[in-house]
Specification:
By secondary structure, the chain is of the alpha+beta class. The chain contains seven helices and twelve strands. Helix 1 runs antiparallel to helix 5 and helix 4 runs antiparallel to helix 5. It starts with 6 loop residues before the first helix and ends with a strand. The structure holds FE2/S2 (inorganic) cluster (FES). GO terms for molecular function: 2 iron, 2 sulfur cluster binding; metal ion binding; quinol-cytochrome-c reductase activity.
């Protein structure tokens, strides 16, 4: 399943205006491989979605949701339209969505970089933290935080931060490696997150959400 954004906020725009060009790609199911449909989005829709959302969600790598892809490969890739993708998502049963998992090969993310994937219709940030970032976040005085959480409580392996890329203020998609604390910056209303995804400045009330995930083997992350 190739989901572009939260259907509750974006689908009306896309149903009405998005033009999608089929690129003749081969279906991939339950593999976690990247699939990038060629998409043309009118300027009005770009403005509505915001530059970050446009860049991250329409051109960023896609993490295939195994349960959903397995159930609707023919329908989704037969015509390759965003609208069909969204319809496919909406028609998937809740239990299938609940079971959907995302496999990510970690050696594709260089140290110091934050990659964006799509998981259950949301952007997913996977950050390969440097030693200096790890040390810096571990030293933060938790008592000074709006949403107090130790860095160690937010990561299973200090090298990897895994968070949902949705600002906890009003749901925009933050920009990686930006803002006053070097983690993520949400330009919508100026929320600054650190490299642990914790809110440090601006109107957002909570830290970026940490989804369920595990490292079943070396170099492999499974979210969901
Ligand atoms: S939505 Fe991110 S700061 Fe308002």
């Amino acid at each position: 399943m190739n989901v572009i954004a939260k259907s509750t906020t974006v689908s009306p725009f896309l149903r009405a205006t998005a033009t999608v060009v089929s690129n003749g790609g081969i279906p991939v199911a339950a593999t976690g491989k990247v699939h990038k449909p060629k998409v043309t989005v009118p300027s009005t829709v770009k403005r509505a979605l915001g530059q970050t959302l446009y860049q991250d969600l329409l051109t960023g790598p896609t993490c295939i949701s195994s349960g959903v892809a397995g159930s609707s490969v023919a329908g989704v890739y037969g015509a390759k339209t965003i609208v069909q993708d969204l319809v496919g998502l909406l028609s998937a049963s809740a239990d299938v969505l609940a079971m959907s998992k995302c496999e990510i090969k970690l050696d594709s993310i260089p140290e110091g970089k934050s990659a964006v994937f799509k998981w259950r219709g949301k952007p997913l940030f996977v950050r390969h933290r440097s030693d200096s970032e790890i040390a810096h976040e571990a030293k933060v005085d938790v008592a000074s935080l709006r949403d107090p959480e130790e860095d160690s409580a937010r990561v299973k392996d200090p090298k990897w931060l895994v968070v949902i890329g949705v600002c906890t203020h009003l749901g925009c998609v933050p920009i990686a490696n930006a803002g006053d604390f070097g983690g993520y910056y949400c330009p919508c209303h100026g929320s600054h997150y650190d490299a642990s995804g914790r809110i440090r400045k601006g109107p957002a009330p909570l830290n970026l959400e940490v989804p369920p995930y595990e490292f079943p083997e070396d170099n492999m992350l499974v979210v969901g």
